[in-house]
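Re: your question about Phospholipid-transporting ATPase

S., sorry for the slow reply, the queue was backed up all week. Below is exactly what I fed in.
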Amino acid sequence: MDKPPPSISSSRWSNVSSKEVTFADLASKRIRHGSAGADSEMLSMSQKEIKDEDARLIYINDPDRTNDTSFDFTGNSIKTAKYSVFTFLPRNLFEQFHRVAYVYFLVIAVLNQLPQLAVFGRGASIMPLAFVLLVSAIKDAYEDFRRHRSDRVENNRLALVFEDGEFRDKQWKYIRVGEVIKVVSNQTLPCDMVLLATSDPTGVVYVQTTNLDGESNLKTRYAKQETLQKATDLETFDGFIKCEKPNRNIYGFQANMEIDGRRLSLGPSNIILRGCELKNTEWALGVVVYAGSETKAMLNNSGAPSKRSRLETRMNLEIILLSLFLIALCTTAAATAAVWLRRHRDDLDTILFYRRKDYSVRPEGKNHNYYGWGWEIFFTFFMAVIVYQIMIPISLYISMELVRIGQAYFMTRDDLMYDESSKSSFQCRALNINEDLGQIKYLFSDKTGTLTDNKMEFQCACIGGVDYSDREPAESEQAGYSVEVDGIILKPKMRVRVDPSLLNLTRNGKATEEAKRANEFFLSLAACNTIVPIVTNTSDPNVKLVDYQGESPDEQALVYAAAAYGFLLIERTSGHIVINVRGEMQRYNVLGLHEFDSDRKRMSVILGCPDMSVKLFVKGADSSMFSVMDEVSYGDVIEATKKQLHAYSSDGLRTLVVGMRKLNDSEFEQWRSSFEAASTALIGRAGLLRKVAGNIETNLRIVGATAIEDKLQRGVPEAIESLRIAGIKVWVLTGDKQETAISIGFSSRLLTRNMRQIVINSNSLDSCRRSLEEANDSIASDDDESVALIIDGTSLIYVLDNDLEDVLFQVACKSSAVLCCRVAPFQKAGIVALVKNRTSDMTLAIGDGANDVSMIQMADVGVGISGQEGRQAVMASDFAMGQFRFLVPLLLVHGHWNYQRMGYMILYNFYRNAVFVLILFWYVLFTCYTLTTAITEWSSVLYSVVYTSFPTIVIGILDKNLGRRILLRHPQLYGVGQRAEGYSTTLFWYMMFDTVWQSAVIFFIPLFAYWGSTIDTSSLGDLWTIAAVVVVNLHLAMDVIRWNWIAHAAIWGSIVAACICVIVIDVIPTLPGYWAIFQVAKTWMFWFCLLAIVVTALLPRFAIKFLVEYYRPSDVRIAREVEKLGTYRESQTMVTEMNQIQDPPRR
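Result:
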């Protein structure tokens, strides 16, 4: 942020009316002064005077001296890669073992290496963990390889650096702090640099910050006037910069430059950050202040926020239950072994299968691997832990990751979530919370740019208390306004419908009082802004378009409106603007500019006019403007304007108020001296500049008011209605006026005519408390009434972080809709936190601007809209999309599918592993409670990794319990996730009882069938292995809804793969059970047992499933039958039987 230099005085603009502006001189330039820049600096880490110990000292064009100081400057080489060749293995393993389950399996593998506890082969016990670690390591290595490759390309790019009296190419990685670099048009900046000079004589440079914050609009930065001339001779340039230490704030910068004994203040507008691109400027010179990892872009390179899904968090409870169950099994095995050892203690020396004594050593025998009764019990317990280790499914974690990747792939490729207007697809930025999309209960939405298009259109104006809202097309409007300059016709790029009477007034009003007010009104719209006019070519070489670019869509709409009425902004430089007023070029010197900030809620510009007068133009929100108006002199006009503003707001229009006044010489000189003092202050600069602005922005004459329409996005009303039917509470949080917000609420169907509105506008804590308590009592007295709560930001000041939060939450929960008006960004996050801290229900926040970032990050799920306000919201979000209406397929379709799939997959993983563990447990009961196993160690290892894992992943990605069409047609089906019907403790215990039955059937049928036979244990083990694989895969097949060739291949292929693996294991002579499968499979009893196991194990489940779905069908089951019959119309049967989603019970 710069200030008008002292040279801007009467001598600077005394001849403003005499300068002739030609088209050849046209350029798009602007200046940024005052409060907004200073306000940005408040975000900076340096709020105190920059002292030597708290700052960096950079000697301009003297990198050797700069880097020889005590400050530790980094080079410009960047490193986004996490690993090196030497650190990859230890660091990657360290990161992976942050998962407690991995530590658990590591302990198991280590225990199995001890001779006393060895149950499996040492290699076999390590294989499952090694496989999971290897897959994750390969994925991490590939990602890091890509980062290394990207770093190499970035570091080897070339830049022009001033060395030995000339600019030479130098690789980015060798650039040092203190060097002067030259950047040419369309080049990317290699580091953070303070501007010294530009190709523009006024020092202005235009940059695009797309790579930094995603915004495509051009922004202006500029060099100090004092450095422009000295930069022509860099070898004699003597000066230094004292700046703050590196920090992440891309919108703030605080520093001082000392040159020729004079100290200059530097702000955010004097620095260009790494990653920005130079636009519409031939070249720019700057000195490097931050390089490499210390640049603001690199300090902000932290990626998407990390969150854990609610389902994964709840899964931890079931893992604890399984761990307790595992401990119970191990304890049972150890206790029964203890009893058996005690009963047979006298026979242990001679029992053939135990043989405690080894008589081959000496006649009296020697204990062979026997350590006493107590130690044997201890060893038995830990051997049981090793044998039953797969009770905790190690493959579940990697399966969940793969399923989420697959789900994200199909979400990003969904045509229903592709935005044609912006050519943007759905983005899944956080892979670990896909299933949370199916459990949302509270939705917090911004309004502007989220529910609306944020494409502002000027609708009407109130000038001098007179309304001009007749927008019938006029003949003059058909061709649009244009002006000829040096034989070139200039036209505004966007046309605006005009009011015929107002247009005639500006054209033919001559010197009437109404015409003067109209001229002042449109002059203020054209001048009081930060818009950059860009002249672009057309197919006709004699016609050029003026494109207004700016950070605010409101300002763009107002400048286009001024152009439509004959006030065409053509040029903006650091010291003046040029406006074509009805064919006459008029130049105005910009003597000062206080940009908009959230405290003042207004902006102002001081212009030196062609008639030698100095005028102050101010525009802002009505809440801040009317307090600085001269109500004594203009009370009638103010009252008339207020009435019109109320009417505009009731129509859903966004409003601004415009005021102005003339400044005499003493007022201007007093302002200028105060402004210069505040601009160079090192302590409290932001507050001082805000105070200067407040002192000058007083006793204004009201000029008029504007009304801008921000139309709803397509499909918003239908989307909100569907979400409400789905049982999702929709809260809209907006900074707009209450009347505007209410109007948008009705048009978006958030509010309905049969809702009773409870409006809370309080100016004190007691008043707010009284209003909330009365509202709570009134709602409780009428449970059937539909209520909408409307509360403003002032009231929220007294509610948040106070004991009124609970009362507000109670009222809001009883309301059908909540609308918060005039809320600040921090209040949005506070409202989300208020709900999160008082309910276990899932929350989702959606927004499109930087003011929504805190809200998005506070919610359980954050969604960013790729809108007109940049991409800050997208960069902070978990998911990103182009339109609000895409929430419907995202939540009702993909959210429902993801939740159902993931919930079933987790339960199925618990089930299939528990079946196998219980088979091993039953075997212990018939082998004298020893931990020997009939199933080979390799089958035990491969069971959860190979035999049964692939079908789980495929079904978790592809299966659909309902089709898209019926899910969209009946939003009530979304309640399945809200009521946790897809994953719950009840389902877990039901699954465990089924597991006990199936494992018992698999074990005992072969046991009794072969009782008394000569079959060996290895043959029985192979039968149990194949039976378990067949049963668990058929169990999965019973639950598959959508069959396709991939599902068939996965399920039946896994059974075939398991059989092949068993055969391969049994043909290896060095492994136990050589040729066992061939011996048992050639008998009819093997196939009979297999058939009997499948029928007996699955019959109870099939019967219970039939009875439940026939006599007590769920919503999903009813909808599936309707879908199966091909009937998608509303049927009376379905409406009657389906659970209706009602508002929560009154509290």
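Confidence is low (pLDDT under 50) at residues 1-49, 474-478, 1128-1147. The chain has 40 helices and 37 strands.

Happy to talk it through on Thursday.
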